[in-house]
Amino acid sequence: MSRLVNISKVIGGFKSNSSTFKGSSLKIVRTLATSKDAESIDSSDLVSVDLPQTSFEGYNLDCPELSFETEKETLLKMYKDMIIVRRMEMAADALYKAKKIRGFCHLSVGQEAIAVGIENAIDHKDTVITSYRCHGFAFMRGASVKSILAELMGRRTGVSFGKGGSMHMFAPGFYGGNGIVGAQVPLGAGLAFAQKYKGERSVCFDLYGDGASNQGQVFEAYNMAKLWNLPCIFVCENNKYGMGTAAARSSATTEYFKRGQYIPGLKINGMDVLACYQGSKFAKDWASQGNGPLVLEFETYRYGGHSMSDPGTTYRTREEVQHMRSRNDPIAGLKAVLLEKNIATEAEIKSYDKAARKYVDEQVAEAEGDAPPEAKMDILFEDVYVPGSEIPVLRGRISDDTWDFKNKTFLNKVY
Ligand SMILES: Cc1ncc(C[n+]2csc(CCOP(=O)(O)OP(=O)(O)O)c2C)c(N)n1
Ligand SMILES: [Mg+2]
């Protein structure tokens, strides 16, 4: 029986996209739904959005429309998604500092608009794959907050059953969470190939960083995607640094959206969730209509260090970080839109923020209460293959490590 329960329901006009262990996704909707959500917002209640001219820049491409209409509830949902992702990352930060999370941990505080904008523009048939900075994407694709935090703490209820950790998170239609810089890019082209081969009109969002963008395998993937007209949307999250190296010190040109050469590109303001949403919708339409790949660049910024072991202050100034936080924050930006368009009052937004904090705190407590995986060999070798597709034996580092899947024991065979 699958341990991953997929729940996707519409409650009170809000779609829960959370699949979860022991079902907490329904709670997310109920916790954050206010009486206004359920009673006074009609799902056909449209609002017009006018993006600034600076939202997009095209390369061999006509930019998406700056003015569009969308449902008010979509804007509210994006706000709630972003505050949940940020609270979850802040909880991970605190748990790490309390030594309850060990090992690698890369947070995306500041970059939330990208995962949220993309997910609100696509559907469950589309696929997403990214690097180690993956918690927000895992949540948006359907993993519960609890299962993500439990994974970070090495609990059996974690999204990878407590054996993966920060960089190895998966959900339906989400192919990780990949720790090897750039390695996911050709995998994403492969996903897009499979989607096209199966005749689906879906697309793959294939994400990587500015640091990864110079790797040869990125250009190999571009080539094949264009050659075979794959519905692959290459997405460079340009957060201005690869670890402690500024983009201009590692990239001969930092116009990442132009680097597909023969593939059209689009630069998107990655600090504005509405631009991320509109740009992602445009990209999905483009690729699913058979136009082949696109290269997107989301210009963004991470507020914290590269990982928990980097304070993030030695290669950039405090003023730079402060400037981005105070002038470009994606959550504050959408809040201003909600207020300006009378979609929510200041008091309602405060209540959403409070509910998000309470919800994440509860999820932390539940995850902390869960047990780690038992120290059993069959648990160690579980999930290496999809059940039923195992090879007879898996060789380890030494002969004593050779595992017999059928009999769930070591063979002790000497090679
Ligand atoms: C093949 C490989 N080389 C080096 C590393 C070490 N490493 C981890 S993250 C990173 C920087 C990547 O920066 P970027 O692509 O901009 O992503 P960001 O961390 O900014 O999201 C490096 C060099 C690695 N994990 N894999
Ligand atoms: Mg980077």
From TrEMBL:
- Judged by the first EC level, this protein's enzyme class is oxidoreductase
Provide the E.C. number(s) assigned to this enzyme: 1.2.4.1
- Which co-factor is required? thiamine diphosphate
Query: Mind telling me which Pfam families this protein's record contains?
Result: E1_dh (PF00676)
Q: Name one GO molecular function term.
A: pyruvate dehydrogenase (acetyl-transferring) activity
Keywords from UniProt, A to Z, are: Oxidoreductase, Pyruvate, Thiamine pyrophosphate
Segments traversing the membrane = none
What is catalysed by this protein? N(6)-[(R)-lipoyl]-L-lysyl-[protein] + pyruvate + H(+) = N(6)-[(R)-S(8)-acetyldihydrolipoyl]-L-lysyl-[protein] + CO2
SUPFAM superfamilies per UniProt: Thiamin diphosphate-binding fold (THDP-binding)
One GO process term, biological-process aspect: pyruvate decarboxylation to acetyl-CoA
Which stretches make up the Dehydrogenase E1 component domain? 81-374
InterPro entries assigned: DH_E1 (IPR001017), PDH_E1_Alpha_Subunit (IPR050642), Pyrv_DH_E1_asu_subgrp-y (IPR017597), THDP-binding (IPR029061)
PANTHER family xref list = PYRUVATE DEHYDROGENASE E1 COMPONENT SUBUNIT ALPHA, PYRUVATE DEHYDROGENASE E1 COMPONENT, ALPHA SUBUNIT BACTERIAL AND ORGANELLAR
What the protein does comes down to:
The pyruvate dehydrogenase complex catalyzes the overall conversion of pyruvate to acetyl-CoA and CO(2).
What name does this protein carry?
Answer: Pyruvate dehydrogenase E1 component subunit alpha
